[in-house]
Amino acid sequence: MKAKKRLIEICILLLVMLFLYTVSIKVLEHDKFIFQLRDSPLRLISFFAPVLAFVVPSFSAAIVVLLLLPGWSRVGLWAALVLLFMFELYIIVVLVSGLRLPCNCSGLHNELSWYGHLGVNAGFMFIGTVALLGLYNRWPLRARACPIPSSRGKRSDERPLELCLNKRSLPAARDDGAGHAQD
After folding, report:
1. Could you give the C-alpha distances from 57 to 29, 30, 52, in angstroms and in order?
2. What would the pLDDT profile of 3-17 be if each residue is shown by its tens digit?
3. One domain for residues 114 and 80
4. Which of 6, 162, 173, 176 is spaced 20 to 30 A from 153 at the CA atom?
5. What is the pTM of this model?
6. Is pLDDT above 50 for 156?
């Protein structure tokens, strides 16, 4: 249980660091951010560039606050995933448009190609999904119980999955004479 909680905390911390970095770059280089938004292949984005240059960092800052507030991390994770998904769609549009546009980011990953940004963004979406699955107790690889037969051949007891993986604890398959194994 402690390992699961730690993993969720690490995922949230990584997302907080990403969004804090994003907010700081967008605020410190605000004019550059507006200029790059105006170069967007989507006319709607270029038209609303001054508004988006304020909304995107504000929304990112709100996500950081939600992720850090106890009891609000689920909302923050959902908001982070929505924003990351929107960025992912934008990157795909840039790639499909074929235009050679500069990246809207600066600093550490300024030299990444658009495909690199697609991968980094997908990685952070994975991190957010892992944290959400943990918070909702929906781990895809959690231990399940496996049935073992009783002395009468009926399922009467269950053992943890790790015991099921030990071949000696698994019930032997019987052959029906036609080459098909039966349980």
Report:
1. 11, 10, 8
2. 888 999 999 999 999
3. yes
4. 162
5. 0.70
6. no
